[in-house]
Amino acid sequence: MKNTYLMSAAILGAAVQADIAVAQENEEIELAQIDEVTVYATRNPIAAFDYPGQVTVIGEDVIDDINPSTIADIFTAVPGASIGGGPRRTGQTPDIRGLSGEGVLVLFDGARQSFLSGHDGRFFIDPDLLRAVEVVRGPTSALYGSGALGGVVAMRTINASDLLDDGETAGFKVGSGYQSVNDEFRVNGTGVWRSNDNRFDVVGNLTFRLSENIELGSGVTLPADDEVVSSLLKASFRPNDDWEISTSWIRFGGDSIDPNNPQGNNIGGPGNDNVFRNIDTNTFQGAINYNPANSDLINANLTTYLTKNQVEEAEVNTTRVVSREVETFGVSLDNRSRFDLGPAALTLTYGGEFYRDDQVGRDNTTTDGKRGGVPDASAKFYGAFIQGELAVQSPLGAPGVLTFLPGVRWDKFQTDASSGPSTSDEAVSPKVGVSYKPVKEIILFGNWSEAYRAPSFNEIYADNVHFQIPDFSSPSFALVTNFFIPNPDLVPEESQTWEVGAGIDLDDLLLNGDRLTIKVSYFKSDVTNLIDLEVNIPAGCFGAPFPPCGTGEAFGNFSRNVNVTNAELDGVEIEAEYDSRVAYIRGNFSTIDGIDADSGDYVGILSPDTYYVDGGIKFAGGDMRLGGRVSLASAFTKVNTPTDSRDSYAVGDIYAVWEPSRGGLKGVRVDLGVDNITDTDYQIVAAGVSEPGRNFKVAVSWRQGF
């Protein structure tokens, strides 16, 4: 750990010295400062700094510098959020502020991703397709309804304008990369075209990845075998300045050989057989924006989408084949109306949404062909929302701007399945945020919100076989079966959260054009009726002279989802960034605690205190960057069982980027790096789950426009 601290200090010290020395030689170089804009935190694009809460927008430049293999690589740059599930891409899931699973909403260009499984991942998209990742931390049901107790992870895919400069009408980008930790090879190509009048454009991408076993920091080789083909096709048409019509298709195809439960450091074996896993997902979207230049009352978006996710698993050593298919159809309409009220400005954002999830589960070894725990079911959601953004200049004679951001959403939802009765409910989700900027460089903010998460059809209607165990009370050790049983009495998970914070945003601090931004907040959430899986096994199955062992509910051998936990979660998040023409540094800190309000036990997806720093120096007018990243975590002791505790860790990465902005090599980019340079054995997800070891990375790309 000492060496890693010294490396971090050296990088930061060199950056400061470079600022002083190089700035005098490069006064003619201008640093373009572009505010990161959040689209999803308010449905009304604003600067992320001005949002009265915490949202991180990871832009394409940062994504490229990370040179990610999976979405998990990007999340180290986000405080209060992480990717659970372990090193394999097939099992990675998001965690935000202690909540995961159905408590985190995932969007691809605004399209809901409703595929949820006990062990499979959720990010069926390649990082090469992304222009930005937004992570809105904290409840957002007031805008998005069910599924956003912890927050929203929104992926924005590349546009034609991201690859074409002014005056260019066609172009391409090709690239390739390699990383050693899993022998992953990547090749990708993107083509783009737009008309001379900028009325029509189209962009297409194809990316291929091939990877093998993962070398862990523990020295163990984790079996894995992945082949991924992902693609994007997007077109936009602007018949005039008032209208834009767009359509897109995102596809992800993955073939792998790994355990039925690929999470953690699991190895295939009895009870968790290796499977040939085939992932086939498609997201189709169409959108219309109408924003007439002569009207402040209309800026409307109509979006429709269809997402089809299918995961099929064929056991390597048997003839068993199981599958899960989830299809989501959705449509949303929203509008923004702006009013000038003299010393105040009001923006109303309002609209409605409908979406439907349908699931089919199959198992070729059951008598009816249905898969245990994956019911054939559907869920329908209807919602309407309104949000106001009132900015008041010089409130009550005080300097600056006071902004109110109240909102509320009403939802009605219904679930149906052939295996049980229909269930329905409704919810109202209010939220109010307030911020005060006495000067443009300082913000004070607070927010309060209520949110909910409707029980999923998997939780309500879970049925059929869960697992089999031997009856140790029987001389023959005959197998008995634990069955899922439905629970139509489940009620929604609910939360109340309040948050307070402050931030500073300073320009021209040390050099002309530099910028420092810091934002800090404290939050507290009371989450009630958390849903958990209750597993009951008769004590007699283990040979004790208690209830007799047997199959099914009659013997108490069953599993069902129940509302069991009332949680209290609270934490602190800090995010900071400094950028100049010669150096940059960004970092974050987060801590979270969670207890069961009834028992006092720890609860939620908790983590140790974590620190992250990414800093570097720019050379040759910004064409070359040398940088390093350091991730630190304290010892993790927020556990109910001592064996679940984890040691502290310090992990360092180094990287170099060469990207000429002029001359004959303009458009070429070379990335070199080493992740986990000290080959540290560390654990993020759970005790005993080691992360990847030392990883050498190289990538080369070439972009050309005409």
UniProtKB/TrEMBL annotation:
Q: Where is the TonB-dependent receptor plug domain?
A: 49-152
List, alphabetically, the InterPro entries matched.
Answer: Beta-barrel_TonB (IPR000531), Beta-barrel_TonB_sf (IPR036942), Plug_dom (IPR012910), Plug_dom_sf (IPR037066), TonB-dep_rcpt-like (IPR039426), TonB_haem/Hb_rcpt (IPR011276), TonB_Hb/transfer/lactofer_rcpt (IPR010949)
Keyword annotations of the record: Cell outer membrane, Membrane, Receptor, Signal, TonB box, Transmembrane, Transmembrane beta strand, Transport
Q: Supply the CDD domains for this chain.
A: ligand_gated_channel
Which residues does the UniProt record annotate as the domain TonB-dependent receptor-like beta-barrel? Answer: 236-677
Q: Does the keyword Repeat apply?
A: no
Any idea where this protein resides? Cell outer membrane
- Predominantly, its location class is membrane
Q: Which domain of life is it from?
A: Bacteria
* Membrane topology category: Multi-pass membrane protein
UniProt KW Protein biosynthesis keyword? no
Please state which protein family the record places this protein in: Belongs to the TonB-dependent receptor family.
Record's protein name:
TonB-dependent hemoglobin/transferrin/lactoferrin family receptor
